[in-house]
Amino acid sequence: MHKFHEVTARLEQALSRISHENLDILEEVKEQVELVLAQFRRAKGRVDVPDVELYEDLLSLYNKSSDAAADPEELRRLAEKLQLVGIAELMQESLALHEMVSASGGDPGAIFEKMSNLLKEIKDFVQTENPNLDAPAREKNLPPSSSSAQTTAVGNHKAPVIPDDFRCPISLELMKDPIIVSTGQTYERSCIEKWLEQGHRTCPKTQQTLSNPALTPNYVLRSLIAQWCETNGIDPPKRPSSSQPSKTKFACSPAELTKIQILLCKLSSCNPEDQRTAAGEIRLLAKRNADNRVAIAEAGAIPLLVKILSTPDSRTQEHAVTALLNLSICEDNKGSIISSGAVPGIVQVLKKGSMEARENAAATLFSLSVVDENKVAIGASGAIPPLVTLLSEGTQRGKKDAATALFNLCIYQGNKGKTVRAGVIPTLMRLLTEPGGGMVDEALAILAILASHPEAKSAIGAAKAMPVLVDLIGNGLPRNKENAAAVLVHLCAGDQQHLADAEELGVMGHLVDLAQNGTDRGKRKAAQLLQRLSRFVEQQKRSQSQTEAQAEQSLSQSRAQQP
């Protein structure tokens, strides 16, 4: 960080020496140079002081064992310093974690599991301590420094630091009217409109070409900014009067909207051919861009697509479930799909549809399960057994779709037992040992998330998993080593027989190597196992010594009694 600030200062100094106003360059270029210079000057003044206490509290909670009780004072400090003191903040953090899972294809690994558990600890603590989280005024929940952050700087009181996500990437100012461009980036409306008016066709932040000029209001971010302002005693930024909150200002053209309406008429007809054609076109339109996904949902397509999930025509069924998958990419559409009663139909396709339809049904369930409450509904719908079946008998793509859906569903504790009872453990063991090993990563990730459940622990033990896990700890890839060690930690907890089996299979040498050269999580798991195994070996030695001493004593007594 220090080096970064040094470079920033040098760049600002070098740029300020250039008399660009005397150069024969366009006014637009001069404006851009001045803007960059202003950004460097702002960056120079914004230095984050390391918070050692926050670091230590996070590290302590992050590294604690699952059965150890957390320190309430640590949790209180974390909730306050991370500003996770209300429903909106906690939900935003939860959504960010789930977006990380989505971006990783459903298998972000151990880090996500740890972060998810950490967030749950904070969430449970905050809800226990503050039952009235919805209250508009939450001064009692704010960090001690917040009282001085309620107003702009006065005397020694400092104004609150604006979160980076609330600043426009162009102006670096708090956004008044945030809008989203086709690349998914958010900007202040006036800034991006000026950028586009100057003839640019790229996203300023990513430099990607904009697929269309659509500017969609970011209502969620606007609401969060308003809430942050209220919490910190700041007047919410007023949107310019010329700005209109119309969602479709630059979205779909009238011709495109008319086309969508025609497709919906076909979709609701009794003609199977019309339904098939319309579902196929909606599938493609929903795949194309975010504007289409919003427009199709707002036109009322979701209930019609749900209705034809039960059609006997396999092709129509495939188009319908894939269209729902594409529509579910839009966060607002997830709730509409669930509330339209889509899950039973999707599960039926997962059971009875063509292989491609089953694969896309699994992917749809994964997409919907990003929302926490949907995990419960999907798990209760009977989706888990057909997902396990697809994991067992599907194509490579089908197996991966099923694995990502199962992994995500099993983040919810209530789904773990259902997954074990659906027979997932024998399937996972087969995937771990099949030639090619194309599903080892996914299988181990699911095993690792299940292993804490008592039924899973019993099933893994019954499946004779120990030799496979020990081999993976010794010869697997880094991620696989840490997941195999994580499974072994749960398997050996309080189980002398598993400890004896692991020790006999030579796991100690592998664990020593993992403790020295593994990932951070792998090192921790290896250390836990080495500690348990060392205690076990020590106990075995003491027990053997006692047995030998008793035997020798018995022998001496018997000799003494002989005439």
Describe the model.
With 563 residues, this protein is an all-alpha fold. Among the domains are: 1-45; 49-102 and 116-127, no CATH class; 164-232, Zinc/RING finger domain, C3HC4 (zinc finger) (Herpes Virus-1), CATH 3.30.40.10; 464-553, Leucine-rich Repeat Variant, CATH 1.25.10. Helices cover 66% and strands 1% of the residues. It is built from 28 helices and three strands. The chain has a three-stranded antiparallel β-sheet. Strand 1 and strand 2 form a beta hairpin. The radius of gyration is 29 Å and the shape is globular. The model is unreliable at 134-157 and 242-250 (pLDDT under 50). It catalyses: S-ubiquitinyl-[E2 ubiquitin-conjugating enzyme]-L-cysteine + [acceptor protein]-L-lysine = [E2 ubiquitin-conjugating enzyme]-L-cysteine + N(6)-ubiquitinyl-[acceptor protein]-L-lysine. One of its GO terms (biological process) is protein ubiquitination. Pathway: Protein modification; protein ubiquitination.
Radius of gyration: 29 Å
Name of the top-level CATH class of the domain at 464-553: Mainly Alpha
Report the portion of residues in β strands.
under 5%
Helical element count? 28
What global shape is seen? Answer: globular
Specify the biggest β-sheet.
3 strands, antiparallel
The secondary structure category is mainly alpha
In angstroms, what separates the terminal alpha carbons? Answer: 87 Å
Name the features.
ubl conjugation pathway, repeat, RING-type E3 ubiquitin transferase, three-stranded antiparallel β-sheet, 563 residues, transferase, Herpes Virus-1, globular, mainly alpha, 3 strands, PUB12-19-like_N
